[in-house]
Specification:
189 residues, 6 strands, Uracil-DNA Glycosylase, subunit E, six-stranded mixed β-sheet
Length: 189
C-alpha cells in the first residue's frame, strides 16, 4: 500500500495547473510556475497576490525585497520560514509586475482552495488586498488589517502586503504591529 503525503498531493495540484493550461498567456510570458514553498503541515499559510521578477526567476514565492522583509517579520515573532507555507493566488508572474486581473485570480482560485484543503492551516494570512479580496470578498483591507476574521469555518488575518511597506515608513510600522499579533492569535485558535 502506497501512502501519499501532503507534499505528494500538493505536487499533483502543481502538475494539474500545468496540465490544465491555467492562464496560458501568463504561463507563456513567465519563466516559472511559482506554486508555493514551505511546510505542508504548517499552522500558518501566507497568501500573496502574484510572483514578481525574482520569484519568477527562482520559482519560489517571496524571495525578492518583499520576501526579505517577510523573513524579517517572521524572525520578529521567532518563526522560521521553514515552519510556514507561502503561496500566491496567481502562480505566474503578470507582465511588468502589473496587478493580477480578476479573470486570472478566478482561474487560479480552485487550485488555491485545494492547496488550503491539503495544508489545513490554523490561520491564513492574506498579504495585500488582492489576496484578501479573493478569499474575503466583502472586506476592505484598510478597515480590517490586523484583525482576525472567521469565514466559512476558516480563520483569516488580513495584512498589508510587505511590498507596500518597503517604501512607506508608516505602513511598515503598521505591518510590524499587525504581525506582532500573530502569536497571540494562533494561541487563541
Amino acid at each position: 500500500m502506497v501512502t501519499t503525503t501532503k507534499q505528494d498531493e500538493l505536487d499533483l495540484i502543481r502538475q494539474s495547473i500545468i496540465d490544465d493550461q491555467v492562464c496560458v498567456e501568463l504561463a507563456n510570458s513567465a519563466t516559472n510556475l511559482v506554486f508555493g514553498d514551505g511546510d505542508p503541515d504548517a499552522e500558518l499559510l501566507f497568501i500573496g497576490e502574484a510572483p514578481g521578477k525574482n520569484e519568477d526567476l527562482q520559482g519560489k514565492p517571496f524571495v525578492g525585497a518583499a520576501g526579505k522583509f517577510l523573513d524579517q517579520l517572521l524572525e520578529m515573532i521567532n518563526l522560521p520560514r521553514s515552519k510556514v507555507y507561502i503561496t500566491n493566488i496567481v502562480k505566474y508572474r503578470p507582465p511588468q509586475n502589473r496587478d493580477p486581473l480578476p479573470t486570472e485570480k478566478e482561474e487560479f482560485l480552485p487550485y488555491l482552495v485545494k492547496q488550503i484543503e491539503i495544508i489545513r492551516p490554523k490561520l491564513i494570512i492574506t498579504l495585500g488586498r488582492h489576496s484578501m479580496n479573493s478569499l474575503l470578498p466583502t472586506q476592505q483591507i484598510s478597515k480590517v488589517h490586523g484583525y482576525p476574521k472567521r469565514y466559512n469555518g476558516q480563520i483569516y488575518l488580513p495584512l498589508f502586503h510587505p511590498a507596500a511597506a518597503l517604501y512607506n515608513g508608516v505602513m511598515k510600522q503598521v505591518l510590524i504591529d499587525d504581525f506582532l499579533k500573530i502569536p497571540a492569535i494562533l494561541e487563541k485558535i
